[in-house]
Amino acid sequence: MDIIKAIEVFAFVTGILYVVLEIGQKNLMWVVGILTGAACAYSFGAQRIYASMGLNIYYVVVSCIGLRQWRRDGAQVAEGAIHLQRLTRRTGLWSAAVFVVGSLLLIALLRALGDPESPIDAIVTVMSAIGTWWLAKSYPEQWMVWIVADVVSCVLCIRAGLYWMSVLYLAYAVSAVYGYFHWMRKGTYIE
Q: What is the domain count for the chain?
């Protein structure tokens, strides 16, 4: 097995662990996210899928922020409860604007860099960046963003020949459906 495939398999294994920890809202998720993000960044970079590579570098950074935020918010709810925050209309509108403008700008940049999948890569990247930020803030709506982003990422990976990664994103999409219902059932909104 070559190094790229080995790193892709590592990303698959840690990615599955990550989503299991995410559903249970465990702080260890963020540490595993650093490892998964680094491995995925390498895999996408090797395929010249630059926006997804950059997105995974972003995941590493946001994992540090998310760990701090979740430790603070987790102290406000009972042991085992999932802490939720309400998504405001303002945040939703800003996120929509960032999605549209960010996707258009990133498509143009990626085309200039020769990304063979620039439109799909850009859309998934911007959508996932928003989903990650919403995750760090514990908005339950983040799961809806992830369902769409993960399905589109699965298609991107199949087109790029990253078959382990495509299975990972398919598992993420299925897990996101479960995660939404789990968070809504076990969640407690904090103010």
A: 1
